[in-house]
Amino acid sequence: MKEALAEAWEEAREGLLLHQDRRVVYLNPRAAELLGVDRGKVLGGPLLLALRDHRLEALALHGGERRFEVRGRHLWAKALPGRLYLLDETEVQKRLSELEETTLLLAHELRTPLAGIGPLLEALTPRTRQEEEVLSLLKGEVARLSRLVQDLSLTAPGPKRTFFPSELWPRLARLLPLEGRRVEVDLAHPVRADPERTFQILLNLLDNALKYGRDPIRLRSREEGGRVFLEVRDAGPPLSDYEALFRPRHRGFQGGAGSGLGLYLVRRLARAQGGEAYARREGGENVFGVVFPLD
């Protein structure tokens, strides 16, 4: 079994370095390639000689995980006692840059037709109550698409104000397929943020929960440590990798078939306001949320 495990690491696409007393006791071929060193020359030598980067050395000695740019490569590194795992994310970062360019182009192309649709809708005169309701819905959808285009354009955050997220619920309820679903709403804590961006965040989180989660779905707020948390919880099965879901075009939900951009946008919108997005398993629920500083 040990021989099979050793052979597997020799062929692995991930880098592995083992160290003891600040000396290298093993590194696989992939680790040597990512670090740009000769395996035979660094085995048994000082850890820094193999890593050639004080940041990587500090991580290896103290533990944790981080992303680094090292000698032209984008590396994800995770350190456990005596072990350092390395993964090359250079291609991922390249694709992210390409995606940003595509996103900007898409936003630019959408902005012009949306700007023309709005005035056309305003010029329409509904003759019946039903037509009035449909027109109102169309105006709301055009406004939402316009806000989405602004978000895709990487524009600066809108003005912040202190408000109760419960103010956003009526709009959310009109746009989401809630019929026959059990959704519990408890938004009792004020948050200081851009209401429009917060609306888009909650819309994406709830849309994912309704598509892929299980009832009950709970939209709640809580305050802790000088921060306000807005969370969408559902009773769906645990997922294999929560952090990966925030990567663009990554779909980790069972049977998921969307664009893979919803949670990526959630994180970007949260960070644009000085907050952060997160996901985890807690108490038998999948939790997707954002956190903002109180002040």
UniProtKB/TrEMBL annotation:
Pfam families according to UniProt: HATPase_c, HisKA
UniProt keywords, alphabetically: ATP-binding, Kinase, Nucleotide-binding, Transferase, Two-component regulatory system
Class of the enzyme per the UniProt entry, highest EC level: transferase
InterPro entries per UniProt: BphY/WalK/GraS-like (IPR050351), HATPase_C_sf (IPR036890), HATPase_dom (IPR003594), His_kinase_dom (IPR005467), HisK_dim/P_dom (IPR003661), HisK_dim/P_sf (IPR036097), PAS-like_dom_sf (IPR035965)
GO molecular function: ATP binding; phosphorelay response regulator activity; phosphorelay sensor kinase activity; protein kinase activator activity
Catalytic activity: ATP + protein L-histidine = ADP + protein N-phospho-L-histidine
Keyword Cytoplasm: no
A Gene Ontology biological process term: osmosensory signaling via phosphorelay pathway
Superkingdom, natural source: Bacteria
PANTHER family: SENSOR HISTIDINE KINASE GLRK, TWO-COMPONENT HISTIDINE KINASE
Protein name: histidine kinase
Native organism: Thermus oshimai JL-2
